[in-house]
Design goal:
single chain, alpha+beta, two-stranded antiparallel ribbon, eight-stranded antiparallel β-sheet, 10 strands, globular, 23% helix, 5 helices
């Protein structure tokens, strides 16, 4: 009996030992369930687009080229300087005749033979070439006249180029003699008197010119204006102020030479 008890006790002891030494199996770890819901993106406030400021480039200035009025230019070289005149196309008979005489060198060595300050300077008398000092001039001509070409838009403002003439009833112009207006300034009252006496119409524009610039309005629509001074009015001033004799001829000869400006 004791033998059986001991065997049983030994068996129990061995059984406990194997149980304590056995490895303990760990419970399986469940993986976290993965959410199938779509990920929610955080709303990001949209930043306003920053526009780059581009400095405006300054506009390139376009050069203004002055429009040159139509007409033939003639250079008058005098003892006291140069004068450039422009011939009007509105007066073709006078224009063409003047050009013809210039191209023929008709005016070369002629004189400004009559000057009246505040009125005009006159030249073109063929008899003034090599004329004796002191004698009266102004009767020479080329043997023909130019029919009058009156134009109300062409008037005797300061610097106007016009044709001289005698007292012929047709008011036809000399074939060669001309004058350049020196003139003076007029008041409104003086212009009104001239308009009434001469029976001519002085427009507001003409009145303004005669008051601000000057001229000889009494000659309007009575002598043909066919050009004007573009450069050299100061030379006209010098000629007009030159000392003269009793015949209005300059005490010292003022000679001229003309050329067409190409």
């Amino acid at each position: 009996m004791r033998y059986i008890f001991r065997l049983t006790l030994i068996a129990l002891l061995l059984s406990g030992t194997s149980t304590s030494n056995a490895q303990v199996k760990k419970a399986p770890v469940k993986k976290a369930a993965v959410s199938t819901k779509p990920a929610v993106r955080k709303a990001t406030a949209a930043k306003p687009a920053v526009k780059k400021t581009v400095a405006a480039k300054p506009a390139t200035a376009v050069p203004v080229v002055p429009v040159k009025p139509a007409g033939t230019r003639v250079k008058i070289t005098t003892t006291l300087g140069e004068i450039t005149v422009r011939l009007y196309d509105n007066t073709p008979l006078h224009r063409d005749n003047f050009i013809k005489l210039v191209e023929e060198h008709f005016y070369d060595s002629l004189l400004f033979h009559r000057i009246i300050s505040g009125f005009m300077i006159q030249g073109g008398d063929p008899e003034s070439k090599n004329a004796q000092p002191g004698i009266m001039l102004g009767k020479g001509d080329v043997g023909y006249k130019i029919p009058a070409e009156f134009d109300s838009t062409l008037y005797h403002k300061k610097g106007a180029l016009a044709a001289a003439r005698n007292n012929n009833p047709e008011k036809a112009s000399s074939g060669c003699q001309f004058y350049i207006v020196h003139g003076k300034k007029f008041s409104e009252e003086e212009l009104e008197v001239i308009q009434q006496q001469k029976g001519i119409y002085l427009s507001p524009a003409k009145r303004m010119t005669y008051k601000m610039v000057g001229g000889t309005p009494a000659l309007d629509m009575n002598y043909t204006v066919f050009g004007e001074v573009e450069q050299g009015m100061e030379v006209v001033e010098l000629i007009a102020q030159t000392p003269k004799n009793n015949f209005d001829r300059p005490a010292q000869d003022i000679m001229m030479k003309m050329d067409i400006i190409k």
